[in-house]
Amino acid sequence: MSDVLTPQGPALTAKDFATDQEVRWCPGCGDYSILKQVQTILPQTGIPRENIVIISGIGCSSRFPYYMNTYGMHSIHGRATAIASGLKATRPELSVWIVTGDGDGLSIGGNHTIHLLRRNFNVNILLFNNQIYGLTKGQYSPTSEENKITKSTPMGSIDHPFNPLALALGADATFIARSMDRDPKHLQQMLLHANDHHGTSLLEIYQNCNIFNDGAFEIFTEKSSRQEETLMLEQGKPLIYGANKDKGIVLDGYKPKLVDLNNGHSANDLWIHDDHDFYKAQILTRFFDNPATVGHFPRPFGVFYATERATYEDEMQLQLEEAIAVKGKGNLDALLQGKETWVIE
Amino acid sequence: MSIPTLVVEDVVIKFAGDSGDGMQLTGSQFTNNTALIGNDLSTFPDFPAEIRAPQGTVPGVSGYQLHFSSNRIYTPGDNCDVLVAMNAAALKVNLKTLKPGGIIITDISGFDTKNLRLANYTDGVNPLEDGSLEGYEVHKIDITKLTREALKDIQLGVKEKDRAKNMFVLGFLYWLYNRDLTSTFSFLHDKFGKKADILESNIKALQSGYNYADTVEAFSSRYKVEKAKLPPGKYRSITGNTALTFGLIAAAENSALPLFLGSYPITPASDILHDLSKYKNFGVRTFQAEDEIAAITSAIGAAYGGSLGITTTSGPGMALKTEAMGLAVMLEIPLLIINIQRGGPSTGLPTKTEQSDLLQAYYGRNGECPMPVISASTPSDCFDAVYEAVRIAVQHMTPVIFLSDGYIANGAEPWRYPSSEDLKPIKVNFKKGMAADEGKFMPYQRDENLVRPWAVPGTPGLEHRIGGLEKEDITGNISYDAENHQHMVKVREAKVDMIANHIPLQTLDSGPETGDVLVLGWGSTYGSIKSAVRELQGQGLAVAHAHLRHLRPFPANLGTMLGNYKKILIPEINNGQLIKIIRDKYLVDAVGYNKIKGVPITRTELVTAVKALI
After folding, report:
1. Could you tell me which residues come within 8 angstroms of residue A227 by beta carbon, excluding any fewer than 6 positions away?
2. How far apart are CA B518 and CA B610, in angstroms?
3. How many domains does the structure of chain A reveal?
């Protein structure tokens, strides 16, 4: 029998994860939904509350820890990923969640994000992407579209934006997924998938900033357009979308093509989603067209890619154990004395 | 005819050559050998920032100065008795430090036309032949040729063979100083055990150098330095960075905290990362971060989780870490920030020593952001000082800045090493849970020293949120309240100030309790000040020396001590930093002695500076 006692208290509910702190996001902000979905899924994970740590950087999203009745740190701009790395390296048993935004995680903290991904610590990154700087009141972000007029770009932004999931895959991320604030059910599923993955999970969440960038993702979230513009990925299922489920995607070699299922194509011809396929995942992350372009691809949501790779903290622990196996447990006196000594009488 | 052996008290040797000539290795081998015969010693490695600076040039010269003695010594020596010059540039750079009548040992292959030109000697001028070295005892040896000859039966290229030249020189000097070769044999076996050819060539070169000196009777006598009269005990030789590494491991063991180092490589601090990464069997976790910021923030994450969080760096890295240090101050979390100072600003002089980051350590952060500052004064003192720094960090829940510098980091001296039983345990109090009468956990509830509890994730009932925003005292909730902010600024400062109640009072290193001059130092100036003050005391002058380990807060009695002398002299390897703080805090008219040349202050310079005040 294991020595570890599992607390046998009553099962937790979403309410147990709320704090007494007033939530200070703007009314109507997409962050409320994300907070609610996280509070909803955590009881389902069965992780004891004291073992959950939420670490954030700076920005609207980064206020998140204050509203979660777990351990939490609201740190400095861009560094949540690095703080989480140190915590996870030393306390592998904790469930560590990083809450960050497009500015925090991809601009000022972009360096730490890519390094976290390649190291593959077993942590979950929730990247709240609203394509704008909210807390500093409306400058363009590294995910803002080109030509965007903001306070700091009166003639339009000339920055080419990041494609966050393609970037993550470039850094050899082992889990990438996309969801949105306006689809609670899907978001909950994705949060659970992210939690289940052993390794760094990057979940990009399209989040509406109704003050500085309202409607940025409207085309993916509104009833009138969403079915035509989104592609909901499901493992083992063909890539089908459209209000009438009559549009599909085939692979012609490595080139994806849109096809009409009413016009000579059947579901059997279509690309079947396989989230273990790195090459297909790379193509999927590139479904990133401006929805205004004629013949554009729909925007995928769901798990793009998931693979197993050793985590940093597991490898680190193995080295510690190996060192002890080879050299024996460290002996302080032997260390201080060293090899060559002499005595003065 | 057998050659007589003369007993001498005190020798300074400078090994100088091109940065690829292996002078650092030669110097450190001679140092270990010296330590084992029980001499007191002090070293000063001095090398260029480039791994292979342009060969043969003046900027490419690498030097290693070793002072050893049968008396107590505290500096690597102002001037040397023996200069090993492997090429013309090495002679040019170092001749000025050689005592009149001193010994010069040269490799004449390093004085060919090309080398002379690279060293910027005028065309046609060769110092070995123009009589300019008449005041010295010059030994012109074709070390390159002799080494190649000695290795002629070994299947190695000429380049590889020439790499063993330094061993020839070492053997030559071992003969001159009556040394046993065993320690270097065993070093070579450890280092090159798997490369039979290289091992053999080094051993052969070493022996050939020794035999050559014996055969040619180049010297009319050999020298011997007797064991030094050090306090009784068990000794080893140690450099500052190694002592610091051991101090960290000892502190982790004696506080029962797992050690986590987040670090980004930077000269001259990288050796601590290298060293600590070897001791995984002590449970040491080292993390080579992607940058200086990740290095400190990962250490903050580890400390938050209950580890001994440490980051190591030098000045430019320190600058990058400042925002994160502010976070650690706000979180009131234990953390050790180790700065092995080097010449600045910016990239500055990466391999040269300086004490110019004290004001940065004191004030270099946004907001009112006080942190304790501790410094080490000698290589072996790094052990005790860093142990003390860890104690303060974990017992007072505060980040602590530890200052060493390139000179003591790389310098070596004998160390009367402690046994684990000599070390005081470092008591750490984690909050383990909620007491029955506690309603809600208050993360900023303080004890009598204003210290908040260390409550780590995984502890049921203590779930709480902390962060960089200003917080309400006691609850830790975000607060923008005006009164609370002023209160918190004062509390954070008082918490650091109160550490003065938990550190030793300042003592004099030597000298009368009242007198004409107090020389007040910190850090690596210790040896020079000690030697200079001793000399002045020998001349009957009322001069005392106090050396600070605790730079913030200062020991409680420092102000009184300063009042007991007519003049206060503060020597520093910077443009006057401690002096500004001392003048500000104690309103004393202290005088500075400042040398900012990337090298230690000499004893002679200080003797003159003190005399000018009397």
Report:
1. A241, A242, A243
2. 9
3. 1
C-alpha–C-alpha distance, residues A262 and A268, integer Å: 13
Q: Is residue A4 part of a domain?
A: no
Compute the distance between CA of residue B373 and CA of residue B76 in angstroms, rounded to an integer: 27
Do residue B460 and residue A50 have CB atoms under 8 angstroms apart?
A: yes
Minimal Cα distance from A313: which residue of B? Answer: B285
| Residue A222, C-beta contacts closer than 8 angstroms, at least 6 positions apart | none
Cβ of B246 and A335 within 8 Å? yes
Residue A268 lies in a domain: no
- Closest-approach residue (CA) in chain A for B227: A344
Its ipTM equals 0.96
Q: With an 8 Å Cβ cutoff, is A344 touching chain B?
A: yes
Kindly report the CATH number assigned to the domain that includes residue A44. 3.40.50.970
Residues 68-97 of A with CB under 8 A from B: 68-76, 79, 82-91, 93-94
**Lowest pLDDT segment from A311-320, B193-202, B269-278:** B193-202
* Closest CA of chain B from A22, distance in Å: 11
% residues pLDDT > 90 (chain A): 92
- The residue among B293 and A263 whose pLDDT is bigger is B293
Asked if the Cβ–Cβ distance from A332 to B461 is below 8 Å, we say no
Is A235 a domain residue? no
Other beta carbons less than 10 A from residue B189's beta carbon? 12
Residue given tokens 């290693």 in the structure block: B64
Q: In chain A, where does DSSP find H-type helix? A: 31-45, 80-90, 102-103, 110-119, 164-170, 184-196, 218-221, 223-229, 278-285, 312-327, 332-337
Q: Do B279 and A343 count as a contact with CB atoms less than 8 A apart?
A: no
Please give the model's pTM, rounded to 2 decimal places.
0.95
Q: Domains in chain B and their CATH numbers?
A: 5-224 (3.40.920.10), 238-422 (3.40.50.970), 429-503 (no CATH), 515-613 (3.40.50.920)
List of chain B residues whose C-beta atoms are within 8 Å of the C-beta of residue A87: 301-302, 304-305, 457
User: Which of chain B's residues have a Cβ under 8 Å away from the Cβ of A320?
Assistant: 280-281, 283, 285
| Under 8 Å between Cβ of B260 and B308 | yes
Does A69 map to a domain?
Answer: yes
